[in-house]
Specification:
two-stranded antiparallel sheet, single chain, Leucine-rich repeat, LRR (right-handed beta-alpha superhelix), 14 strands
Length: 374
């Protein structure tokens, strides 16, 4: 095996390790391919850079220039079906696509070796088909998985010896319970996870505690736990000193029943999230009391987007507290759900704070958005 083939094999074997990609870039530099080498190094840097970093536009401009000048060379050797796919960290990165069993086996299975990892949203697959997929070595090529299915299928997923390359898992409305979260946290499937969306899982406070005590608390950058029957006690168990310090996006929507205010009080008390940029708290029966707690929260000093849609009891007084908060000066977007009687007054508060106000693109009839999302 040549040096190049050995390096490429190592990248495919360890698709989440930038070290081997950078070693390959050095090899390319030494063997007359400086543009390809720079492109790999540049995209690896971009992957580690926050969009709010002043260097972000500089890096993206250089990336676009290299791509424009050399994209034909970068795409060399790819099957025709993959030539329009984007690149990430120096290699082709197929975008998320919906997939059924027939399409996967007849078309995409043979394409899997041509990219380090793939992103799929599997639909209309039976339990038997999914069990077969999870047991197949080809499952190692899947880095992003979206799937809405029952708890038995989830058990088969986390038991798979080939699930160790997942970086993003979106498992929706399985009502799997706390045991499912415990199984995930102790499985190979959690090894590389940085994006976890486990909505409608009914993990409750016990599952939240398991997650908070797991290694995932030190590696996740995105966590969505909407509709999971988590109460204030579960929030105290989930968060704590040194936990979720890399977390950039958090969604706790539709939890806290019947007292969402208490959940927010627990969040403000327990969570220290220095990297947090986006927070979703939709449909949680929140009142002005929750707004006052959030306005005094020092645990998320870089928060940019706060979504409080579906909380009609956060009145104009609560919106005023939020817009005047010293702790929330970094906010660029605030979504609220005003009553008809207070809509005009709240719109004025949002305009004064953010300079613009309009309907939330996802809920144009009821929700008002101050500012604009990144």
């Amino acid at each position: 095996m040549s040096d190049e083939k050995a390096l490429l094999a190592a990248i495919w074997e360890h698709p989440h390790d930038d070290t081997v990609r950078l070693i390959y870039a050095d090899w390319l530099q030494e063997n007359g391919q400086p543009a390809r080498a720079e492109f790999i190094r540049l995209q690896c840097t971009i992957a580690r850079t926050d969009k709010s970093d002043p260097q972000w536009p500089v890096l993206k401009k250089r990336e676009a220039g290299l791509w424009e000048a050399h994209r034909k060379m970068f795409r060399r050797g790819l099957p025709d079906r993959m030539r329009a796919y984007p690149f990430a960290r120096g290699f082709v990165a197929p975008p998320l696509r919906p997939m059924n069993s027939h399409k996967f086996h007849k078309v995409f299975r043979d394409l899997l070796p041509h990219a380090p990892t793939w992103a799929f949203w599997f639909s209309n697959l039976t339990e038997k088909e999914l069990e077969s997929l999870f047991g197949d070595e080809c499952f190692r090529r899947i880095g992003v998985l979206q799937l809405f299915h029952n708890s038995r299928v989830f058990t088969n997923l986390v038991a798979s010896p080939h699930a160790g390359n997942l970086t993003e898992l979106h498992w929706g409305y399985s009502f799997a319970g706390p045991d499912a979260m415990s199984a995930l946290c102790s499985s190979a499937a959690s090894r590389q996870l940085v994006h976890l969306r486990f909505d409608g899982g009914n993990i409750g406070d016990a599952g939240a505690e398991v997650l908070g005590e797991s290694t995932l608390a030190g590696q996740l950058i995105e966590l969505s736990l909407s509709s999971n029957d988590i109460t204030a006690d579960g929030i105290d168990r989930l968060f704590g000193p040194g936990r979720f310090e890399k977390l950039q996006r958090l969604d706790l929507s539709a939890n806290g029943f019947p007292d969402g205010d208490e959940l927010i009080t627990a969040l403000v008390r327990s969570a220290r999230l220095p990297a947090l940029r986006e927070l979703g708290l939709v449909g949680m029966w929140l009142t002005t009391k929750a707004a006052e707690a959030l306005a005094a929260w020092t645990g998320a000093p870089g928060l940019l987007q706060l979504d409080l849609a579906g909380n009609i009891e956060i009145r104009a007084a609560g919106v005023r507290v939020l817009t005047e908060s010293v702790c929330l000066q970094t906010l660029t977007t605030l979504d609220v759900f005003p009553s008809n009687a207070e809509r005009a007054g709240i719109a004025e508060l949002l305009t004064q704070r953010f300079g613009s106000v309009g309907p939330d693109p996802n809920d144009q009839q009821f929700t008002l958005r101050g500012g604009s999302a990144r």
